[in-house]
Amino acid sequence: MGQAQNASEPSLPARPTGLRRLAFRLPILLYKLRLGFILGERFMLLRHMGRKSGQLHETVVEVVARDPAEGSWTVAAAFGPKTDWYRNLRKHPATTVQVGGREFRVMAAFPDAEIGGEIMVRYAHAHPAAAKRIAAFLGHAVDGGPDDYRNLGQAIPFAVLTAM
């Protein structure tokens, strides 16, 4: 039997299918055309090895935090822990990313839920409008306070990608 979800916990949306999936995949074309710089440093092309197939896959993800001193980027699996790229990174954490026009070899690490909550609080502080849109997309009403964003961030799996 599955665990009942706490009413205050955000629910994660279903993975996109059909036209919605196509729309999510269109930014990959920008990178293939060497136009990734248009998306700036707020997005990245993540290359990841299939956990079952061993095939190389590509996904564009939003960078929710960047630490230039550490040479790291934090990304969120907004569709939850069953998101394919997230599961693939868990199995094969060494990979490459493209940020703007530059490519980096990275190693993925996976912060716990408590740290995820703090990541989301910092993101909401830096990008309040985007944080509200993400919360709405995830079906979570927020009042703009840190507790709401902390709760939301604890439900989202994050990956920290550090340059090697």
Quick take:
The protein has 164 residues and is α+β, with helices and mostly antiparallel strands. The chain has 5 helices and 6 strands; from the N terminus they run αβββαββαααβ.
Write out key terms for the chains shown.
164 residues; alpha+beta; Pnp Oxidase, Chain A; 6-stranded antiparallel beta barrel; 35% helix; disordered N terminus
Question: Your description of this structure?
Answer:
With 164 residues, the chain is α+β, with helices and mostly antiparallel strands. It has one domain: Pnp Oxidase, Chain A. 35% of the residues lie in helices and 27% in strands. It has a 6-stranded antiparallel barrel. Helix 3 crosses helix 5 (146-155). The longest helix is centred in the N-terminal third of the chain and has 15 residues, at 18-32.
Give the CATH architecture: Roll
The strands making up the biggest β-sheet line up spatially as 1-2-3-6-5-4
Number of domains: 1
Rg: 16 Å
* CATH C-level category: Mainly Beta
Briefly note the structural class of the backbone: alpha+beta
Average pLDDT across residues?
88
The SSE string, one letter per element, is HEEEHEEHHHE
Could you tell me the number of beta strands?
6
The gross shape turns out to be: globular
Poorly predicted sequence stretches spanning 5 or more consecutive residues: 1-8
Largest sheet: 6 strands, antiparallel, barrel
Q: First CA to last CA: what distance?
A: 42 Å
Strand content: 25-35%
Question: What's the topology here?
Answer:
Layout: H1 18-32, E1 43-49, E2 56-67, E3 72-76, H2 84-91, E4 94-99, E5 102-109, H3 113-126, H4 128-137, H5 146-155, E6 158-163
Antiparallel strand pairs: 1-2, 1-4, 2-3, 3-6, 4-5, 5-6
